[in-house]
């Protein structure tokens, strides 16, 4: 009977190891350190899937990353936190299969690579791509999930007298037009502000410079997946 229990325990352990090995492990790395993750299928918001962290002591800047979306096919990974409401916190662009490079937070360098120990020689293995969220459509979406209206996509049409935007969610205001710009303020949902100008990056990312009573700065109006502000107010 004792030998049988040893066999059962051994089989259970083998199944556990095989299940763990079947899960694709990726590494998020900043100058502070590395956090091992898996890209999951379950949604945390519309068009955004969950990230499972495998380390209890991930670097502070990575600790709150809990969701992702794939954009430009598998060319870009957008990272989100859902702990204080949905907020985009980072972005990484594909360098090659199994390697994405970008920024997180206020411009900290970020690498997302396939495998648990990217800096050590390992047995060659074919990297598995993060899965693009199922059920996503080709349209750009508002933060609440609906498809954005054509007149809200892109920069405001100043020639038609539209020189303002209305935030559809809480947005950071940065000192420069990019994720590397320092956060200098915030727009609240439904807040309307005057636009001083906009710049487009990569054909689908739009940053607009907005004017507030005591300062001005840049806010992300849209990225490859979502439109965060309407053109015009009302």
Note down, in words, how this protein is organized.
- With 234 residues, the protein is mainly beta.
- Helix content is 11%, strand content 42%.
- It has 2 helices and 15 strands.
- It has helices at residues 2-22, 60-63; strands at residues 26-30, 33-45, 48-53, 67-71, 76-81, 87-96, 99-104, 108-114, 164-167, 171-174, 183-187, 192-201, 205-211, 216-222, 229-231.
- An 8-stranded antiparallel β-barrel has the order 1-2-3-4-5-6-7-8. It has a 5-stranded antiparallel sheet with strand order 14-13-12-9-15, with no helix packed on it. The protein has a two-stranded antiparallel sheet with strand order 10-11.
- A hairpin with a 2-residue loop joins strand 1 (26-30) and strand 2.
- The longest helix has 21 residues, at 2-22.
- The protein is globular and about 50 Å long.
> Could you tell me how far the N terminus lies from the C terminus, measured between alpha carbons in angstroms?
76 Å
Mean pLDDT: 79
Strand content: 35-45%
Largest sheet, in brief, is: 8 strands, antiparallel, barrel
Shape: globular
**Number of E strands:** 15
Helix fraction by DSSP (H/I, runs of at least 4): 10-25%
Strand neighbour order, sheet with most strands: 1-2-3-4-5-6-7-8
Count up the helices: 2
- Uncertain segments are 1-22, 117-126
The assigned structural class equals: mainly beta
Spatial extent as radius of gyration: 21 Å
Order of helices and strands: HEEEHEEEEEEEEEEEE
